[in-house]
């Protein structure tokens, strides 16, 4: 028990990977593989609940820290720990992974490698959220790409080669600058430890000369190296075009995780690395960041509204929603130390969590209908509501959460971001309202094009008969929906922890 | 139970009903409507208890029923949410609870409970009737339970809005109603028109909502709180009035007020965001009554009344409010005159009447606006439900004749219904007279007269005359409607076979008609009662204002105007339409009025089409696929190009050919050319060795000796 408590993070982190390795030796029975993977992914979730329970929100700084020697020659150590911000992301990851695996039970092509990749993916993502060492952060950051690349490339739909390559190359290309900047910091201070770097990097005096350049220039370059890597991942406008392609081609559960968790890695990078390491630059370039964020919000909404493919529509909605996260982060960077910053940043973190729920739900629902009809073209649907009333109700509910309807989760976080950004970034916030308006337009377009209209005869009879959402699928959606509603009504359960961490940090 | 606890619990039964019906009882129609009506009854009961306890409190404004809890952690502090019943919310709660309960009850009959399932009905379309023993009879709504679930959620939204003690939960209730109106307008989603109307309603009101959200964010940023108690404190208001906002020369209060007001423009369908409301008639009639009378549109006006302390701080904002209100009142009335659909007339009438209230607020007539809000809610709910009853009766006729081409909502297909549907007729007449402001006996007269009196007394002549003309038109189109529908001879076979509706529909009509008359009496001015009865309403609601406004002295001009426009309009409506039998004989079917001043067409050209083009072509095709991906796709070929350039111009010629193949060739050349000397003859080797020996020996000799 003692061991369990002191190694909780490592246990959560590596259980999925170990389970994946065990799967190698299991007999190739699809049903067995599925249930094994599902049960294995529940273990980190349960451990996260224990973690959540034992976490003390009133203590500032990181908790459950573990530190082991890792790469002594360059002074990198395996250092993990969580605060309120990363804890909520860990919860999101361990919560969504079992659901994504459950959603994948309908996959019957090469089940073993598929499930193994999912479990590896989970370890990769968790590693990023837990890492307190820059190099470890980077390692996990890149590790996460590999399983996702294969999931899209091997289990994706028609255009999967293009999409998976674009996803992989774009993210890696974006990370090049990050790697260099990470090296710079590591070489400069002889450590990659984040907690130490926060301190030392910011205490450099302003007239230091580095690499023949004044420190301000170096920091500016490094800031943008970090920012672009994360901007690609979030994704911010105009780095977003990999996302609709990757989403559209990925298998359903792949999209769930991609939208639900992977995009959060980018935003998390901003929060964990960019703002604490570059408070001055974050203030200077808040406007630029806000431009990209507002671009994502507005063009994401318009882009979504302009789609005819259901999944692309949902994919663009992620651009729109993640834009709000970065708007909040930009505002927090600009107004650091004020209540505005705390509200904006808490809103941003909550928005990450909320978008994780609603985007995963939306992608799953697209998958449900795609699996039955083998089309995603919105013009092929319409009038499905009488055929699948339960599915319809669930779709409307989830759409409304995505739209930010008050009473459901998305509203709380969007409201906080708008409130927090209003004072520091008034004009940007005002323009982002245009995106918020069109969020309504594309959501309603989706609902209208899929559900509404006279009963669709094509899908009503014979071999095309559309079947209602089944119990397993409802079980995937039920926890998501319950959490959306609960967070909308009583956001305190998670916001309290986030807010305390944010207040202590920014 | 403590009053505060009742207020907390008050909105919950309908929400609970929503979840119960959706999750469990949706298969059983009887169980579903029992739960929904029961929930509405519980909320009504709670509301009545709260209302009468509130009336009994001596200084309710200073000691309102209030309670709040921490909801949202914001840095070091919390955003609190809670409930508040003061004179204003108590008044609104009163009419909301009554109308909601009546509408719930009415829905049971309206959706043909107890009738057989239709022959060809399916979800998404209105019922088409069932054949029983060779007769066609009305059939029950296929999505009966769903309807009750939705209106339950709707009622929850409205109650939440009313009992809120802060702007945020008010906005929450506001938006939940927005969702429900979307779901209910699009209730018969199989109809293309309903599908589009639902989206139009949601999007148009959302335009207002995003402005309102900005206003809330601004308000919250400046004051650090959203609860009415905090933001309406004297020093906060003073600060808001003195801080400039930097936009249009408005003060912070002015800008916040304006942003919040735009929210109301959307929700209460004021010009230029009025376009959604007439289309919203696509929903079932009880929904029209819910949205257009009892709850949603009233919520918009309620919000302005609630935020009045802030909005009224800046005269510029107030001028805009007054202008929008007065203009809308007249503008919508002109359209109503030329409509033939019984519900559309009422829809435009609603827009116009809401304009009266907004205009009243714009000229600081706080009490008059509130009074008109309440009376209007009663008589407009009555009129909508009455029109639903008429339509229901007409549908009966349509089923009887089997001619489905006859539109049961077109007033020119009606006529003479007063004998067929007496209860509906008499109650509709009461509602119509109240709307027209029939002198002395109806509630509408007292409230409208108070607005006109206020406008006159405070020198807002332009507003006064605009509203007077609008009031004349109101009386005129109302009487036109009554004449065409109920008087004369039936103009179609269907109207001849129309038939009174069941008790579940007529009872609400009777109850509401009592209020349509009686509620006016609580606000009768001093001059008529001679001080025998105090003007209770003015006293109660007027206490909300910081500087208590004095009741107006008697003035003959507004009173005479009220009398003339009401009676004149009614008379004109009756005499002009007494003998009109078809739209061709109707002189007022002017295209520009009929087509609602072409506002829809205009919006389509300047907003909707460009937005669609911008999304589908500019953003999706040009920017993302063309420009951004275009740039990305340059990377592929560029990298490939660099790769093949290195291969073709360096690797292949220099490394492979020159160094790799070159060294092999050189070796090979040597090998080939040296081969002739490898003959295998020992004599030749010896001679060669000898020659080499001499050459080497000679060279060594010369080099070493020299």
**Regions of chain A with pLDDT < 50 over 5+ consecutive residues?**
none
* Strand order in space, largest sheet of chain B: 1-2
| Strand runs of chain B, count | 4
Query: Uncertain regions of chain B: pLDDT < 50 for 5+ in a row?
Result: none
* Separation of the first and last Cα atoms of chain B: 132 Å
Number of continuous helical runs of chain A:
21
- Report the end-to-end length of chain A measured between terminal Cα atoms: 35 Å
Side-by-side strand order of the widest sheet of chain A: 1-2
Quickly give the structural class of chain B. mainly alpha
What can you tell me about this protein's structure?
- The complex is a heterodimer of chains A (506) and B (706).
- Chain A is mainly α and 506 residues long.
- Chain A is built from 21 helices and 4 strands.
- A two-stranded antiparallel ribbon of chain A has the order 1-2. A two-stranded antiparallel ribbon of chain A has the order 3-4.
- In chain A, strand 1 and strand 2 form a beta hairpin.
- In chain A, helix 2 runs antiparallel to helix 5 and helix 17 packs antiparallel against helix 19.
- The longest helix of chain A is centred in the C-terminal third of the chain and has 35 residues.
- Chain A is globular and about 75 Å long.
- Chain B is mainly alpha-helical.
- Chain B is built from 29 helices and 4 strands.
- In chain B, the strands form 2 sheets. Chain B has a two-stranded antiparallel ribbon. In chain B, strands 3-4 form a two-stranded antiparallel sheet.
- In chain B, a hairpin with a 2-residue loop joins strand 1 and strand 2.
- The longest helix of chain B has 76 residues.
- Chains A and B meet through helix 14, helix 16, helix 17, helix 18 and helix 19 of A and strand 1, helix 6, helix 7 and helix 28 of B.
């Amino acid at each position: 028990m003692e061991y369990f408590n002191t190694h909780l993070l490592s246990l959560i982190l590596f259980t999925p990977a170990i389970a994946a390795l065990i799967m190698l030796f299991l007999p190739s029975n699809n049903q067995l593989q599925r249930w094994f993977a599902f049960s294995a992914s529940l273990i980190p979730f349960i451990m996260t609940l224990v973690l959540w329970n034992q976490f003390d929100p009133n203590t500032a700084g990181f908790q459950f820290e573990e530190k082991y020697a890792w790469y002594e020659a360059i002074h990198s150590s395996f250092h993990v720990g969580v605060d309120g911000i990363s804890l909520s992301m860990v919860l999101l990851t361990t919560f969504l992974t079992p659901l994504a695996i459950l959603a994948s039970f309908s996959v019957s092509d090469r089940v073993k490698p598929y499930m193994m990749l999912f479990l590896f993916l989970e370890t990769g993502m968790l590693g990023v959220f837990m890492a307190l060492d820059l190099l470890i952060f980077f390692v996990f950051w890149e590790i996460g790409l590999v399983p996702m690349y294969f999931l899209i490339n091997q289990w994706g739909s028609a255009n999967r080669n293009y999409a998976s390559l674009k996803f992989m190359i774009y993210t890696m290309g974006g990370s090049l600058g990050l790697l260099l900047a990470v090296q710079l910091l590591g070489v400069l201070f002889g450590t990659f430890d984040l907690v130490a770097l926060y301190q030392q990097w910011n205490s450099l005096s302003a007239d230091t000369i580095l690499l023949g350049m004044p420190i301000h220039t170096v920091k500016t370059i490094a800031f943008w190296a970090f920012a672009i890597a994360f901007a690609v991942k979030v994704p911010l406008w105009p780095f977003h075009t990999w996302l609709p392609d990757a989403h559209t081609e990925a298998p359903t559960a792949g999209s769930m995780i991609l939208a639900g968790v992977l995009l959060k890695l980018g935003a998390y990078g901003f929060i964990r690395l960019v703002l604490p390491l570059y408070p001055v630059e974050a203030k200077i370039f808040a406007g630029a960041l806000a431009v990209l964020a507002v671009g994502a919000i507005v063009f994401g909404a318009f882009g979504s509204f302009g789609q005819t493919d259901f999944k692309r529509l949902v994919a663009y909605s992620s651009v729109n929603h993640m834009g709000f996260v970065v708007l909040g982060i930009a505002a927090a960077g600009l107004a650091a130390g004020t209540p505005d910053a705390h509200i904006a940043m808490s809103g941003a973190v909550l928005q990450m969590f909320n978008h994780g729920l609603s985007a995963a739900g939306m992608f799953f629902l697209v998958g449900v209908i795609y699996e039955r009809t083998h089309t995603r073209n919105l013009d092929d649907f319409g009038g499905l509501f009488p055929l699948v009333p339960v599915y319809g109700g669930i779709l409307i509910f989830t759409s409304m959460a995505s739209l930010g309807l008050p009473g459901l989760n998305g509203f709380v976080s969007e409201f906080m971001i708008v409130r927090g950004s209003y004072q520091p970034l008034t004009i940007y916030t005002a323009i982002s309202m245009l995106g918020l308006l069109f969020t309504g337009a594309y959501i309603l377009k989706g609902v209208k094009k899929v559900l509404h209209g006279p009963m669709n005869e094509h899908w009503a009879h014979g071999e095309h008969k559309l079947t209602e959402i089944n119990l397993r699928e409802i079980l995937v959606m039920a926890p998501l929906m319950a959490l959306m509603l609960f967070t909308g009504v009583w956001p305190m359960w998670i916001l309290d922890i986030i807010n305390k961490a944010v207040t202590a940090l920014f | 139970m403590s009053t505060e606890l009742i207020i907390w619990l008050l909105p919950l039964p309908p929400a609970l009903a929503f979840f119960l019906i959706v999750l469990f009882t949706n298969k059983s129609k009887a169980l579903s409507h029992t739960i929904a009506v029961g929930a509405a009854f519980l909320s009504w009961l709670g509301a009545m208890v709260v209302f009468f306890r509130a009336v009994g409190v001596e200084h309710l404004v200073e000691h309102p029923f209030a309670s709040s809890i921490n909801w949202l952690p914001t840095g070091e502090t919390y955003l609190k949410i809670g409930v508040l019943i003061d004179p204003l919310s108590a008044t609104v709660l009163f009419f909301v609870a009554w109308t909601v309960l009546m509408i719930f009850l009415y829905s049971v009959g309206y959706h043909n409970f107890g009738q057989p399932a239709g022959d060809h009905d399916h979800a998404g379309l209105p019922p088409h009737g069932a054949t029983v023993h060779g007769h066609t009879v009305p059939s029950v709504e296929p999505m009966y339970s769903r309807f009750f679930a939705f209106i339950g959620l709707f009622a929850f939204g409205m109650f939440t809005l009313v009992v809120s003690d802060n702007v945020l939960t008010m906005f929450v209730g506001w938006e939940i109603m927005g969702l429900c109106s979307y779901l209910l307008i699009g209730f018969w989603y199989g109809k293309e028109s309903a599908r589009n109307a639902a989206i139009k309603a949601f999007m148009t009101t959302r335009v207002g909502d995003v402005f309102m959200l900005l206003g809330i964010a601004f308000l919250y940023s400046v004051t650090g709180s959203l609860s009415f108690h905090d933001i309406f404190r004297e020093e906060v208001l003073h600060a808001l009035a003195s801080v400039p906002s930097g936009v249009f020369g408005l003060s912070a209060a002015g800008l916040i007020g304006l942003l919040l007001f735009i929210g109301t423009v959307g929700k209460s369908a004021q010009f230029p965001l009025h376009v959604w409301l007439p289309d919203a008639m696509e929903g079932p009639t009880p929904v029209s009554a819910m949205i257009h009378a009892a709850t949603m549109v009233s919520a918009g006006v309620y919000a302005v009344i609630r935020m009045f302390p802030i909005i009224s701080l800046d005269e510029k904002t107030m001028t805009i409010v007054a202008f929008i209100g007065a203009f809308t009142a007249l503008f919508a009335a002109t359209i109503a005159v030329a409509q033939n659909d019984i519900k559309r007339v009422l829809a435009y009438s609603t827009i116009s009447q809401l304009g009266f209230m907004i205009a009243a607020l714009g000229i600081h007539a706080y009490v008059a606006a509130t009074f008109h809000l309440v009376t209007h809610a009663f008589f407009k709910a009555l009129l909508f439900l009455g029109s639903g009853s008429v339509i229901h009766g007409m549908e009966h006729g349509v089923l009887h004749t089997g001619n489905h081409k006859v539109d049961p909502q077109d007033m020119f297909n009606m006529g003479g219904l007063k004998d067929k549907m007496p209860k509906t007729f008499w109650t509709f007449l009461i509602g119509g007279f109240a709307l027209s402001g029939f002198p002395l006996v109806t509630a509408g007269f007292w409230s409208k007269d108070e607005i006109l009196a206020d406008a006159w007394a405070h020198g807002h002549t332009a507003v006064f005359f605009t509203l007077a003309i609008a009031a004349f038109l109101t009386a005129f189109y109302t009487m036109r409607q009554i004449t065409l529908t109920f008087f004369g001879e039936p103009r179609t076979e269907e109207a001849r076979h129309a038939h009174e509706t069941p008790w579940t529909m007529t009872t609400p009509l009777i109850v509401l008609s009592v209020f349509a008359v009686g509620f006016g009496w609580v606000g009768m001015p001093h001059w008529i009662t001679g001080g025998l009865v105090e003007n209770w309403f003015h006293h109660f609601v007027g206490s909300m204002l910081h500087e208590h406004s004095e009741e107006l002295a008697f003035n003959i001009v507004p009173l005479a105007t009220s009398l003339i426009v009401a009676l004149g309009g009614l008379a004109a409506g009756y005499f002009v339409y007494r003998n009109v039998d078809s739209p061709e004989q109707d002189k007022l079917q002017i295209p520009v009025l009929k087509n609602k001043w072409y506002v829809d067409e205009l919006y389509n050209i300047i907003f909707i089409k460009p937005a669609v083009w911008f999304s589908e072509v500019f953003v999706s095709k040009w920017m993302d696929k063309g420009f951004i991906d275009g740039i990305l796709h340059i990377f592929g070929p560029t990298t490939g190009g660099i790769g093949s350039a290195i291969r073709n111009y360096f690797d292949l010629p220099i490394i492979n050919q020159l160094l790799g193949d070159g060294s092999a060739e050189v070796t090979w050349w040597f090998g080939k050319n040296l081969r002739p000397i490898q003959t295998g003859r020992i004599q030749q080797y010896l001679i060669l060795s000898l020659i080499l020996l001499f050459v080497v020996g000679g060279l060594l000799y010369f080099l070493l000796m020299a």
